[in-house]
Each structure stands twice: as C-alpha cells, then as structure tokens.
Write a structure and sequence with these properties.
By secondary structure, the chain is α+β, with helices and mostly antiparallel strands. 17% of the residues lie in helices and 26% in strands. The protein has one helix and six strands. Strands 1, 4, 5 and 6 form a four-stranded antiparallel β-sheet that branches. The mean pLDDT is 92.
C-alpha cells in the first residue's frame, strides 16, 4: 500500500486516511477521494462537507467518512467517524424516514 502524503482536501489520523487514489476530485482542486462529484454542503464561510473514500491502515479495508474542509482544503475535524457502505445505507434510510416525518 502506498504511503499517504498530506495534500489539500485530504485527511489522515493514526489509523485512517483519505483514499486519494479513488473516486472524484474535490473540484476545483485535483485531490481525489470524494465519493461524489461535488460536496454535500458548502456553508456561507466556504467550508465544505464531503463524503470520502477512506483506507484503514491497520486492516487495509476500504471504508467511508464525512469530512469538513475549510476553503483552503484543511480538515476542520480532529476525529473520524468511519463507516462502510452498509452503514451508509442504514443512515440514508433513517434520514429518509426523518424527512418524511417532518
């Protein structure tokens, strides 16, 4: 597995890092790793929330996380919440139920 290197719109901690060899770029930046071609949210300060491909450096498994970045592409979070596609499916169903009820 290739060693992770710091670049804008990527994040790493002691166990996980953005998989910059997979997915879409964080347009207009060229750093890959996004699951989608655009951020989920961009707030009034220009901060953006992305769903990203993630590598688990301990087990080598491929997972996902949500990551906030500032305008320059620096991570806004110092903790990670990693999940897999099945977990994402459960989250989506729960969010859909919430939206339908409201």
């Amino acid at each position: 597995m290739e060693k992770w290197r710091r670049q804008a719109f990527s994040c790493a901690n002691s166990r996980f890092h953005t998989d910059t060899a997979t997915g879409f770029s964080h347009a207009p930046h060229t750093t890959m790793g996004s699951v989608l071609p655009a951020p989920l949210i961009v707030n009034s300060d220009g901060e953006s929330l992305w769903l990203e491909h993630v590598v688990d450096m301990k087990y080598g498994s491929r997972t996902l996380w949500f990551m906030w970045y500032d305008k320059q592409g620096s991570p806004k979070l110092d903790m990670s919440g990693v999940f897999d596609v099945a977990n994402l499916s459960e989250m989506t169903a729960s969010l859909a139920a919430f939206l339908k009820a409201n």
